[in-house]
Amino acid sequence: MKLIRLKYKKWYNILRDGIHKNNPIVVAVLGICSALAVTNKVENAIAMGLGVTFVVMASSATVSLVRNFIPSKVRMVTYMVIISTFVILVQMFLEAFFPSIASALGAYVGLIITNCIVMGRAEAFAAKNPVRYTLVDGFASGMGYTFVLITVSIVREILAFGSILNFRIMPATWPNWVVMAMAPGGFFVLGLLIWGIREWSKFYEEAV
Amino acid sequence: MENILELIIASILNHNIALVYILGMCPLIAISTNIKNAKGMGIAVVFVVTITAMINWPIYQLLQNTGTTNLSLLVFIITIAATVQFLEMFLEKFIPKLYNAFGIFLPLITVNCVVLAISLFFVNRDYNFVQTTGFAFGSSVGWLLAIVLVAGIREKMAKNSDIPRGLRGKAIVFIVLGIIALAFIGFTGLANI
User: Fold this and answer.
1) Which of B92, B98, B112 is nearest to B29 (CA)?
2) Contact B25 A194 (CB under 8 A)
3) Under DSSP, is residue B168 helix (H, G, I), strand (E, B) or coil?
4) CA B59 → CA A79, A92, A95, B54, B75, distances in Å?
5) Is the Cβ pair A188, B110 closer than 8 Å?
6) Which tens digit of pLDDT belongs to each residue from B154-171?
């Protein structure tokens, strides 16, 4: 009985929307840059995904807290300042505790600021909803994003280096597909993944 | 002088910001449905990127001298937002023709990762002012090249190709981009950055 009622709870719907029905990458095609640029290794993808999840949750909550005080003309700039504050936090955290991942991600950590998902959630959801829902919404979008990142990076790391999380799983004779670690590999894998998920969930765009 | 030329060529072709570093994908995918819009957006990006890089470089020197480089992200993004706003007002007032051509793309540029990425890259690579300007110009021209190439292919594709249903719309752009990126690997080693 409880399980049935769960379906009508607002937070449950928000969660499902973010991860499955409205996945930021597959359906809305947002935040592609980092999804492709950092996914040649699984560890980078995990770090990036968690970083984005944290930034989305924290900045959505903050935007929602101050939403009644921001004049609508300067709201974009305000969001930017809030978001970049949290991104600086993530950057300093990575540099202090995971220096190897920080150097592998390089400038892409800073580029979380311009990740459209963060800005999109702030504008579309956090500016109109109370804090507790924005936390759920940020978590859902972030997890949907992380899920796609990890899937893409598993495929790419297996093909390009023959390993997952630096743990070798392919036989020693496996020829590394170098192109998979570079840009074209990312484009192809993500394109095919989006195709697969859209066929599976019957989501089609009619325009070409 | 030769170095600057080499830097510009490298950042247009073999270090192309869109096809090798995979930056600025959101607007590239969203606006590349026809060549006219793609050109407008591309030229607006060239303007904004070059100008913001030239403004951000001295600001970064100032931050370095005061030991506050941790704040560089915050400062860069504010500079970029302010520059875009200023450029929009300036064009609207003094060059309305240009404003009509690509004014609508200007507000979108603030969230284009290329602009911020250029500022972060010159920090990582220790460029001087002239190198920064050349790099910013070259990279943005590279981005213009990429978006126009994709738009050209999409325009043709819209007329006479039978795309599987699940790939229609934005998904096919990834395959197109992948093939163009493969072609750009052919430029590897052409010039050093």
Assistant:
1) B112
2) no
3) coil
4) 22, 21, 23, 9, 8
5) no
6) 998 888 788 888 788 788
